[in-house]
Specification:
CATH superfamily of the largest domain: Jelly Rolls
Number of strands: 22
Number of helices: 1
CATH topology of the largest domain: Jelly Rolls
Distance between the termini: 10 Å
Strand content: over 45%
Pfam families: Cupin_7 (PF12973)
Radius of gyration: 17 Å
CATH class of the largest domain: Mainly Beta
Shape: globular
Organism: Granulosicoccus antarcticus IMCC3135
Protein name: ChrR-like cupin domain-containing protein
Structural class: mainly beta
Order of helices and strands: EEEEEEEEEEEEEEEEEEEEEEH
Largest sheet: 9 strands, antiparallel
């Protein structure tokens, strides 16, 4: 199964506008942003857990990273409220659930298979520092290795912002908005920028708070081959 799987193309989706699909587990639904594969897939998805819903215990052979957008996500390792960023590396396992319900943005099968670094960050409390190159931008690096960089960025109102997209980029708007290529990218919108595309955006009147991932789209061919 392939959904929005031409990674050479720019893609902009407003996630609340996407229809929910039931998952194999009762009370867990999904909004698919991109996908390569069937139930085991390289996927970028928004997932909703109804109160008292859960997934069975499982191993993330290809790794998992997620951002909690609403509510509290839980597993045997802890409780993660909205604003949490988690990386569960390849071969890690857990039993996810949510007692009161939650919504998360999650990416699967997009890690270096030798990666073993676990990350837990509260984006509500991390320290943001001025970007020395880009005026009007503050940031905090959540994760970085030879494949990718993941950051929380805060853009001042009206700031003109560029990104290094040599390795592609993904942006998820956590709050505020910006315009790019004549389109408004607002709260809970997801934007994927292909390799080597020019990126310049203008932050909206309230600025923008954005989860940003760069560099990783160089490896989509490799990731597809794993699941062929």
């Amino acid at each position: 199964m392939e959904i929005n799987a031409d990674f050479s193309q720019r893609s902009l989706l407003h996630t609340p506008d996407i229809e929910w699909q039931d998952s194999p587990m009762k009370g867990v639904r999904r909004r698919v942003l991109d996908r390569v594969g069937n139930e085991v897939a390289r996927a970028t998805t928004v997932v909703s857990y109804a109160p008292n819903s859960h997934f069975s215990s499982h191993v993330h052979t290809g790794g998992e990273e997620f951002v909690v957008l609403e509510g509290i996500f839980q597993d045997e390792h802890g409780d993660y409220p909205a604003g949490s960023y988690i990386r569960n590396p390849p071969q890690s396992s857990h039993t996810p659930r949510s007692d009161d319900g939650c919504i998360i943005f999650v990416k699967l099968w997009q890690f270096d298979l030798d990666d073993r670094q676990h990350v837990v960050a509260d984006m509500n409390t991390v320290e943001l520092n001025n970007d020395p190159v880009r005026s009007g931008v503050q940031l905090h690096t959540l994760f970085e290795d030879s494949r990718e960089t993941v950051r929380l960025e805060q853009w001042e109102a009206g700031a003109t912002v560029t990104l290094d997209t040599n390795g592609g980029a993904e942006l998820l708007v956590l709050d505020g908005s910006f315009t790019q290529e004549g389109e408004t990218v607002d709260k809970l919108s997801w934007l994927r920028i292909p390799l080597h595309a020019d990126f310049q955006a203008t932050a909206g009147a309230s600025g923008a708070r954005i989860w940003v991932k760069t560099g990783h789209l160089r490896f989509t061919k490799e990731e597809k081959q794993r699941l062929a």
